[in-house]
Write a structure and sequence with these properties.
Blueprint lengths: L1 H76 L12 E4 L2 E4 H24 L1
Antiparallel strand pairs: 1-2
Length: about 120
C-alpha cells in the first residue's frame, strides 16, 4: 500500500510538472497572439491609408481623362479652332490664365477675407 501511495505521489508530481509546463506554454502563446493581433491592426490601418490614397489617385485620373476628352471633342467638332496651346488644367479668371490650383487658393483666401470682414463688421 505504501508503494501505491508513493506511485500516486510520483504521478501527481509528474502531473503538476506537466500542468506547469502547459500553463507556461499557454502564457507564451497568449503573448504571441497579442503581438500578432497588434501587427494585424497596424497592417489594417496601413492598408486603409493605402486604399484611401488609391481612391484619391483614381479620382484624379478620371478628372484628368475627362478634361482631356472634352478638349479632344472640341477639337474634333470645331475644325478651324486651334487648341494646341489649350491646357485643360488652366482657367481664365479676371482675364488672366491661371492654374486651377491657384484659383482654388485665391478663392479660399477671398472667402477667409470675407469672413474676417464680416466678423469685423459684427464687432463694430
Amino acid at each position: 500500500m505504501t508503494n501505491r501511495v508513493e506511485n500516486n505521489m510520483v504521478e501527481l508530481g509528474g502531473l503538476a510538472k506537466v500542468v506547469a509546463d502547459l500553463e507556461a506554454r499557454l502564457k507564451e502563446l497568449e503573448s504571441r497572439l497579442e503581438e500578432s493581433e497588434l501587427r494585424a491592426s497596424k497592417e489594417r490601418d496601413a492598408n486603409k491609408e493605402l486604399e484611401d490614397e488609391l481612391l484619391m489617385y483614381k479620382k484624379e485620373f478620371v478628372e484628368q481623362h475627362l478634361k482631356r476628352f472634352n478638349k479632344a471633342v472640341v477639337e474634333f467638332f470645331v475644325k478651324d479652332l486651334d487648341l494646341g496651346l489649350f491646357d485643360p488644367f488652366k482657367d481664365v479668371k479676371n482675364s488672366i490664365l491661371l492654374d486651377e490650383k491657384d484659383i482654388a487658393v485665391k478663392e479660399e483666401a477671398s472667402e477667409e477675407q470675407d469672413a474676417k470682414e464680416q466678423g469685423d463688421d459684427a464687432n463694430v
